[in-house]
Amino acid sequence: MRFLRQRILWLIVLTALVMLTLWASLPSLSSGRAPENNASSGPMYTRKERFGIAFVSAVPEGQGYVTQSLSEYRVAALKVGWYSDWSFNANPAQPQDDTLEYVQLINVRAGSWPPDWSAVREAATRNRGAIWIIGNEPEGVYGQGNRTPTEYAEIYHEAYTRLKSYDRDARIAIGGVIEPTPLRLRWIEEAMAAYQARYGTPMEVDVWNIHVQILQEKEGDWGAGIPAGITPRPGEAREYDLTDCASIPIFKTLVTEFRTWMRAHGQRNKPLIISEMGVLQPSDYIAPDKESGDQRIEQFMAETFDWLLSATDPDIGCPADENRLVQRWLWFSLNGSFWDQDTNPRGFNGSLYDYRTKRPNRFGLKWIYYQNPYRLNVPFVRK
User: Fold this and answer.
1) Fold of 47-376
2) Which residues contact 301 (CB under 8 A, 6 or more apart)?
3) Could you tell me if 168 and 175 are in contact, meaning their C-beta atoms sit under 8 angstroms apart?
């Protein structure tokens, strides 16, 4: 009998402990609502997975192009996890010494839209769960999407619907505007409103995506131009100077403003990627001479990377990623050609490798030093 009473007592104690554990796990009732989930249990991505590179498959050279393949490059020292080449592919190329995630992209400019949907289906079914970006700078009028908000809403709906039918796990990203300025945020808002009006449902975006190329917004001049279908209000366009293209404070402000915009539109819980960043302008355009301009770009690279890796905010950051502001970013570019007024007027600045030798150039070596400071025993000096 004594043993029976002891067993009953232990059962009572055990039941009480289980009930206390369950009670502790319930949301607080005193506030009348469940607590906010302001932080995750860990990061969404590893450091390597956050860094990406843009690969140029046809490099401008003089009046022609030089065809390139990523399989000709060795990039493991860069420690990057993903790449994009402004296209989609069922069997994307890989570098010789690493395996990278390939982010798919469907171009929306006239002449590219609509795509070959059978080829898109093959790419989607062979790469399930991939990120699909709908358009490259879809609002851009200078050789880019050149789509009005209404046109883009219709394009996005068709692409989203088809891709989800091919692969329900596909992650659909909005096309990255050139820079998330107030003028371009209005273009996005008008596209969202047009989508809602036409289809009776909000525009579903799995991954938010922007470019951060700091350029003036002025019609008929260098820079980003005015978004298609948008008339600027007084003071709305940002007329950045050439020297602003490598401005670290402006970069941080643009990203923070966009994360604030995401929260205001109920999108805070979504991941944010930057599918293109860098300094496009020639080095001697952003500084008194080429050497000091190159140093500015190196500094821009290091300090923006430092900030992207560490920037968090409990009010606007992504809760699933420890409240980080940005989840992934991509540098323009791995292998583009540099601008020269006489010999290569279609080139841009910031490439990491020489497309002819397939070897790291000055910026590529600085990137490698940044990513491997202890293994290489080479200090990366910040001013």
Assistant:
1) TIM Barrel (3.20.20)
2) 331, 363, 366, 367, 370
3) no
Beta bridge partners of 113: 110
Does the pLDDT of residue 20 top 90, yes or no? no
User: Does 25 have pLDDT greater than 50?
Assistant: no
Residue 152 phi, psi dihedral angles, 5° rounding? -65, -40
What distance in Å separates the CA atoms of residue 370 and residue 78, rounded to the nearest whole number? 9
What are the extents of the domains in the chain?
A: 47-376
Rounded Cα distance, 221 and 228, in Å: 15
- What average pLDDT does this structure show over 319-344? 96
pLDDT interval class at 376 (50, 70, 90): low
CA distances from 109 to 72, 199, 284, 338 (A): 29, 22, 32, 25
Q: How far apart are CA 59 and CA 61, in angstroms?
A: 6
- Rounded to the nearest integer, the mean pLDDT of the chain is 91
For the four alpha carbons of 123, 125, 127 and 131, in that order, the dihedral sign comes to positive
Which residue has 């298609």 as its token pair?
228
List strands edge to edge, sheet with 171-176: 104-106, 131-136, 171-176
